[in-house]
Predict the structure.
Amino acid sequence: MRHLRYSRSGHQQREARRAARAVPPELVRRAGIILAAVALPTLVALLAPREVEPAPVHTTVALTPAAHAPAPPAATPAAPPAAPPPPPALERVQGALADGEALSTALQRHGVGANDTSDLVRALKDHVDMRGLRAGASFTVVWRPVVTGARELVRMELATHSGEGVPRTVVVEREDAPITQPELGALFLARHEDAPIETKLEGLSGTVRSSLYQSMLESGEEALLVNKFVDVFAWNVDFYRQTQRGDAWRVIVEKRFAGGRFLGYGKVLAAEYVNAGSVHRGFLFDAADGKHRGTYDDEGNALQRTFLKNPMEIARVTSSYGMRFHPVLGKNKQHQGVDYGAAIGTPVWSVADGVVKEARWSKTAGNMIVLAHMNGITTEYFHLSKFAEGIKPGMRVQQKQLIGAVGNTGMSTGPHLHFGMLRGGAHVDPAQQKFPNAKPIPKEYRDELGRFVAPLLAQLRALDRA
Ligand SMILES: [Zn+2]
């Protein structure tokens, strides 16, 4: 084999590379198939034979762009030697990104030349979020010796992770131009391998001492699980005001891992909450035909109702702001709603389908929204920092649609949402209201739901409470 190396202008290089790219899709395809079929260590082993090839003979021919000589036609391989020479000693260097360091800087700090660096970075771009690389990201650079006594960069491996946090190994390898097109020089090809994602079903349980949030965190879980759990009972349990010490929870949830790293929660399949002695259970059912989904109890009753218990994500409520004594007016006033202490900007949503009746400024309520719902029920949202786009009288809203954001406007002593509910024009306690269920499970899915629920119910019951 005879390799020629030319120095070419950037433009010529780009043209040549484009042409070269047209040649090796087979290579790319082949690499893709291998990638899909084998784990990385195997892959690396498969690629290793290139290292034990006979040492290529390199002739370095420096040409100026103006003096482009045709490739010597006599560049044919010498007669094969009787025995292959010993494999060249590869030189490996391992490195890692320092604090605030760009990959290109780190590569050069580890001996990679400027041209190779820019070629490597260009090859990496489709596989790595370069700005997402953090200090400590490790890499390996591999050189092989060339006859002139110099060395040639042949491979680089970078340990990083996908946007989702899945451990990823990117391999960049030198692909020498086909012998028929030596003028193309070499091209760096990159590919990546992500650690496989594993989904495990886990059963978790606990007892509430101060709040559900605290209890789940104490059991080693993350806040996102609280949201997923609360969502199951969003129509049935008011976790903001009805949570009591001694309440108990059980949940069967999917957890996703890759390379030993926890990526996040998948679906909550089953959940149970014992609130002041009454048991609530929910099963998230997805029909096999993909045409029906819903949250049901173990008897097939839908958990969905026309009204949600709360107008915001309960995990974002920072304090029980609720006070019966109105601090601004300075007199004890009948408090006609629920106050949710939460950071300014926390999303506020409609608790039910309805129509915007008012969206305006008021001296006492600040930015306020009033929604009209079915059965003569209206809901109020006060002290907002802003309205969601398009919110104005007459507009239709759906349950859980974003309508505004928590603020501290009007007569308010701190960031909070005042939420009120009226029935027939009179204020009522939202927690005490009974709202109609959504429809029960359609007949044709009843058996399938039964088969889905039975094993989950058994698993829930088998969970010990911490
Ligand atoms: Zn209030």
Summary: Residues 335, 337, 339, 418 surround zinc ion (CB under 6 Å). The domain at 198-305+439-462 is CATH 3.10.450.350 (Nuclear Transport Factor 2; Chain: A,). The longest helix spans residues 446-462. Residues 97 and 106 are 6 Å apart (CA to CA).
